[in-house]
TrEMBL record:
Coiled coil: none annotated. Signal peptide: none annotated. Keywords: DNA-binding, Phosphoprotein. This is Transcriptional regulator, LytR/AlgR family. CDD domains: REC_LytTR_AlgR-like (cd17532).
Amino acid sequence: MIRALIVDDEPPALGELRVLLNEAGDIDIVGEAGNAVEAIAAINRLQPEVVFLDIQMPRISGLEMLAMLDPAHAPRIVFLTAHDDYAVQAFEENAFDYLLKPVDPLRLGKTLQRLQRDRAPQDVGSLKSAHPLRQIPCAGQNRISLLRVEDVEYVASRASGVFVVGEDGKERFTELSLRTLEERTSMFQCHRQYLVNLDRIKELRFEEGGLGHILTLAGRSVPVSRRFLSVLKEKLGIG
């Protein structure tokens, strides 16, 4: 059976799609989500083969969400919308299929047949050309905050998750992986567990053993490993 996640901010639409998929058979609905941040978390946790994704959602659209997925673990995306205006853009973003609401059972059946025939691992190479991220979705209590990339000082990956630190010094949890943020933004990997915004660097300090650390404009310290130090010096124009 095909493992599927369904994502829609409107409960009635979510329920209708659930019924259609259950009636179609050969589909295992492993999860549901009502917004993009919930969906990204569910994809990372449940690893569905396909996501039926509403395009028009508040704060982060389905199209924007697609660019936030880790290419190494990206499922096939079947977009859902009440308007056909997004069809071209959806396929430009490497959508597997595009269904209009209300979903026609016969048309859905054709999509499921294609999914069954094409269950080989997805070629993620084309996903790496997705548009750069301008904002990073961060999860908070009962809310989603969007932090502009230019306002980020650094990103840290810890055992408890990935945290984005803005110029205000607050740490915000994000469901995006460090790899996704490296590939989708201009931030530089200065350490196995850190990305830094090059425009927010105030000083680069050198330590013994070829190590170093960065002092940001807000006065925070970010480690630099030996592996990345020489490349960072080149990017900063340091001889």
